[in-house]
Amino acid sequence: MLNIYLRLLRNVQHLVTKFIYIAVLPFIMIVHLNETYLLNYLIAIATSIIIAIGLKMPILPEKPRRFSWTNSAIFPTPIIAIGLLAICFSINFLWIYNGMVLAIIMGLVSALFVKYLFYHVFPNPPEVKEEVNE
What we know:
Blueprint: H1 2-31, H2 35-54, H3 77-90, H4 100-121
Helix pairs in contact: 2-3, 2-4, 3-4
C-alpha cells in the first residue's frame, strides 16, 4: 500500500514540476524583467512598425498568410528590432536615456533592413515544381 502512495506522490510531483516549468515560469520571467527593458522593447516594436508603414510596406502579408513569404510591417520587422535590441542589452550596451534612444534606432534599422536588404540576405526559397505522373 505504501508503494502505491509513493508512486502516486512521485507522479503528482512530476506533474506539478512540469506545470511550473511550462505555465508558471514564463510569467515569473516576465515579472522579473526590468521595467525599462520592457518599455524599450515596446518602443522598438512601435518604432519599427511605424517606420515600416511609412516606407509603404504592407501591414499584413498577402493571403494565405501561413504560406506567404511577403515581408510586412507586423512580421518580421518588430521581431528583428527586439532581437537587435536584446543583443545590445545582453552586452550591457544601453547608450543614453537607459536605452530608449537605442530602441528607436533599432526600430529604424530593422524597418530599413526589412524593406531594402532582407531579400538579399535571406533569399526566397526555391520553387518546387511537382510533376504529375499519369
